[in-house]
Amino acid sequence: MAAAANPTGATEITRRLAAICGPSFARRAGAADEVAGRVARWVAVPGGPEAAAEVLRLAARHDLTVVPRGAGTKIDWGVAPGRVDILLDTGRLAGIGHQSADSPVVEVDAGTPLRAVQATLARTGRRLPLDPPSPGATLGGVLAAAEAGPLRHRHGTACEQLVGLRWLAADGELVGAGVGPAEPSAGAAPVGLDVGRLLCGSQGGLGVLVSATVRVQAAPASRIWVTRPVWTPLEVHDLVRAVLAARLDPAAVELDLPAAGVAPPGEDSARAAARANHPSMAGRRAGTARRGAGTLAVLLEGGPADVAERVDRLVTLFEGGAAVDSAAPRWWRRYPFGPGDTALRVEVPTSDLHAAVYALRDAAGVPVPVRGSAGLGVVHTALPATMPEDRVAAILAAVRGVLLARRGRCVVVAAPPAVRRAVDVWGEAAVIPRLRAAKDHLDPHRRLAPGRLPGGL
């Protein structure tokens, strides 16, 4: 998209945004107001869906682009948009819909921090079965980035738990999908939930999320972690296969496989300070790097007696070396990468995860840290921030070549600007035709986060 040619001056745009959002909630952007390195021109914080719709209509009239932002914990993920005129902050689109204590669903406004939702539900003994690693993340941000944590093993992603969704199209029209509080009676034009689910992972490129209706459940009475040290990807493969075959109904099966004998990228003091101050680390204490052996951790949830019986079976299955704890390992729900690293997500059938990890380490020439859902074949890894972009590109090409034959893929989650410019962040994306159709329908003029979607959409 070419630079905006509308003659309306920056001061006038600021004034109009202030009239929509309030004088304290619209301003010229600063150096910190960026999306994957692309600095915005204005920041608008609308106080509700109608105000957000008016911001979008203003942008349409003046040929301005808009990129939504939640808590900013994943703002540097993915491809940089071609242009960011208005950064639409969803912080005031927050709240939890009224619902009875026995309701199976809850409607949550997109700008609501997930931990606030969990705290509210906990007062009635319930929870959302969502545990993304980003502290402080909003529900809208989790959906927009398709972020998932260990509980994905049993309960699926946030997108898979959706029963209703409301969002604003580029022209400001409120669109509703699904059933429940987000049904058309809420004032939104209806579409199928399959279309709404395309917004998951779209990073604001298809619409501005307003609210989501998601399933809730009773909080489990007992939660126990059983861990076992592991040394090689092949050993992990055999153990995971045994755990899944034992029908233990695990809530999560997670792996932490550090770079053997070396600290992962980011251990020097300057990098540690940068990591601690990054939005993704808000409210979190940085852990000490583990060296040597990795860990396979299995979370069992349910009634106390049932969990105790399954724990005993799992300890026997692990044949010594198992540890049992009522608290999660320190690395649980933490990414193995930090600010500045090239972060990769590998997705492959569980039976081929060990081959993917070996391929990654062979291509890198050195051990690299691997962490994530071994029970699903979805893990993250990190390449050092100092690695040249041509070397990263070569590693990606080698790993993707191996994964292609195994029905897997490797996505660049985040990377330094030079790396993002040198590599294909997404790799093969079979969903591109559907995304293009959705983009043409919801944002035909390419005003929402242009270029953020696969295929440069």
Which secondary structure elements does this structure contain, and how are they paired or packed?
Layout: H1 10-21, E1 26-28, E2 34-35, E3 38-39, E4 42-44, H2 49-61, E5 66-69, E6 86-89, E7 105-109, H3 114-122, E8 126-127, H4 139-144, H5 152-155, E9 162-168, E10 174-178, E11 189-191, H6 193-196, E12 208-215, E13 217-218, E14 222-230, H7 233-245, E15 252-257, H8 269-277, E16 294-302, H9 304-317, E17 323-325, E18 342-347, H10 353-364, E19 370-373, E20 378-383, H11 389-404, E21 409-414, H12 417-422, H13 432-442
Parallel strand pairs: 4-6, 5-6, 10-11
Antiparallel strand pairs: 1-4, 2-3, 7-12, 8-13, 9-10, 9-12, 14-16, 14-17, 15-16, 15-19, 18-20, 18-21, 19-20
Helix pairs in contact: 1-2, 7-10, 10-11
Strand content: 15-25%
> Roughly how many Å apart are the termini?
11 Å
Low-confidence stretches: 1-5, 181-186, 261-291
Q: Give the spatial strand order of the biggest sheet.
A: 17-14-16-15-19-20-18-21
Instruction: Give a count of the beta strands, DSSP E runs of length 2 or more.
Output: 21
Q: Counting H and I runs of at least 4 residues, what is the number of helices?
A: 13
Helical residue percent band: 25-40%
Q: Rg to the nearest angstrom?
A: 22 Å
Can you characterise this structure?
- The protein is of the alpha+beta class.
- The chain is built from 13 helices and 21 strands.
- It has helices at 10-21, 49-61, 114-122, 139-144, 152-155, 193-196, 233-245, 269-277, 304-317, 353-364, 389-404, 417-422, 432-442, and strands spanning 26-28, 34-35, 38-39, 42-44, 66-69, 86-89, 105-109, 126-127, 162-168, 174-178, 189-191, 208-215, 217-218, 222-230, 252-257, 294-302, 323-325, 342-347, 370-373, 378-383, 409-414.
- The strands form 5 sheets. An 8-stranded antiparallel sheet has the order 17-14-16-15-19-20-18-21. A 5-stranded mixed sheet has the order 7-12-9-10-11.
- Strand 19 and strand 20 form a beta hairpin.
- Helix 1 runs antiparallel to helix 2, helix 7 (233-245) packs antiparallel against helix 10 (353-364) and helix 10 runs antiparallel to helix 11.
- The termini are close together.
- The relative contact order is 0.12.
- The model is unreliable at 1-5, 181-186 and 261-291 (pLDDT under 50).
